[in-house]
């Protein structure tokens, strides 16, 4: 049976949700109908455009650009501050509604998710009819619009949902890729960041079709594993599954928004080490081990990607989590600057559950020996008593700046 995957994306979520809430409270103006943005204080970390209305887009305002730039383009711009608590509530309401259709839903951010429509497709004359019912139901029930992309895999469903907006349904099945996707500029390919695009253009690859028909080995030579992934995406290849969150084992995770964007692997490593220690400590406190580790990146332009792998044997050791997260990062990092990093674990099992050894164990990060396990336990006791920052690995401590 051919899979039917939906990608459901709220149109300009932060602004739409703010507009709906204001109208509910008696506002006379709909933010979606005027030049408006969701942003923050220009002096703060969030002094960038988080969402924009279509009229604001008409002035050339882009998501992720500084608020000051947006006001230079449109002096009469209306700006509202973000309300993350309200966004989480709207997001939860949306996911609860979608699960009335099927529980096979993987939420990938506050405003988008994948739905595996395969098992309920026979209820409808076509997948488009099913998507139409869902899209219109959301508009009627909640007052805002979504785009729905339909395909046989997650990548193409995601690409389809990014076609013309708002309030639209688009299909992008493999046979439609040469017509609908290949003519697009290379920068519109999912996960093709600025630096990757610049490299590809130097190779005279200007469209997604150019990349799809290029020599894969040449792309890998210039862009390593990220190039391999982009080449596969350009050809519509994606084997990832929709992974619904299991309520009985949601997992343990942690993420952090960085004080400034980082652009090198060396800057990323200590962040992952700190996150791994936090996640590992919480797993051990709960007497749980994880079989699945996922790593999350949010780029400077707010594009988010996660990458995961299943371990041959479950773990709650910091070093295994750290090394796995670093490997996952290197496999998908586009080279763009990063503003948020996260580590999440799932498929939890009891710490006491017996482990079955695998012939592939030697390929995985090694579990700490008894000496290091005792050291980790001692550090944990100190942290519990004196706080998380009471003891740190030397690799996490910045060297003092030299006095010139």
What do you see in this structure?
With 404 residues, the protein is of the alpha+beta class. It is built from 13 helices and 12 strands. The strands form 3 sheets. Strands 5-6-1-7-8 form a 5-stranded mixed β-sheet. It has a 4-stranded antiparallel β-sheet with strand order 9-12-10-11. Helix 6 links the parallel strand 7 and strand 8. Helix 11 crosses helix 12 (318-332). The chain is globular, with a radius of gyration of 23 Å.
What is the average per-residue confidence, as pLDDT, rounded to a whole number? 88
Number of strands: 12
Low-confidence stretches: 358-364, 399-404
What global shape is seen?
globular
Oligomeric state, counting identical vs distinct chains: single chain
Helix coverage percent of residues? 25-40%
The value of Rg in angstroms is: 23 Å
Biggest sheet details: 5 strands, mixed
| Ends distance | 69 Å
Percentage beta strand: 15-25%
Describe the secondary structure blueprint for this structure.
Elements: E1 5-10, H1 13-24, E2 36-38, E3 51-52, H2 54-57, H3 67-73, E4 78-80, H4 84-98, E5 105-109, E6 112-116, H5 127-142, E7 146-151, H6 154-161, E8 169-171, H7 177-180, H8 194-202, H9 208-212, H10 216-234, E9 252-262, H11 265-285, E10 288-299, E11 304-315, H12 318-332, E12 338-350, H13 370-386
Parallel strand pairs: 2-4, 7-8
Antiparallel strand pairs: 1-6, 1-7, 2-3, 5-6, 9-12, 10-11, 10-12
Helix pairs in contact: 11-12
